[in-house]
Write a structure and sequence with these properties.
Elements: H1 2-6, H2 13-28, H3 31-34, H4 36-54, H5 58-105
Helix pairs in contact: 2-4, 2-5, 4-5
Domain DUF4398: 14-89
Protein name: DUF4398 domain-containing protein
Pfam families: DUF4398
Length: 106
Amino acid sequence: MALTGCASTPPPTEELAAARLSVARAGDADADQYAPADIGQARRALEQAQAAMGSQRESEARTLALSASALADLAHARSLQAATDAELASRRAEITTLRQRLQTED
C-alpha cells in the first residue's frame, strides 16, 4: 500500500510527441497562412510544455501538450477548410467564365 502512494504517472513524452506531430501537420497544411492565430497559440503551448517538462513540472507539461495538440488540430482543420473554400471559389469562377463564353457563342 505504501508503494502505490509513491507511484507517479509516467512523464508526458507521448503527449509531447503527439503535440509536435500535430503542430507539424498543421504547418504542412499551410496553417501559417490560413489559421495564423491558432497555429501560433499551438506553438506557444508546445514551447511552454517543453519548458515545463524541462523543469520537472510534468503535470503542467501534460496539460500544455494536450492543449497544443488541440490547438494544432483546430489550426489544421481551419486550414483545410480555407483551402477548400478557396478551391470552391476558383471552380465557381471558372464555371461563370465558361457560362459567359457559351452565351457569347450563341
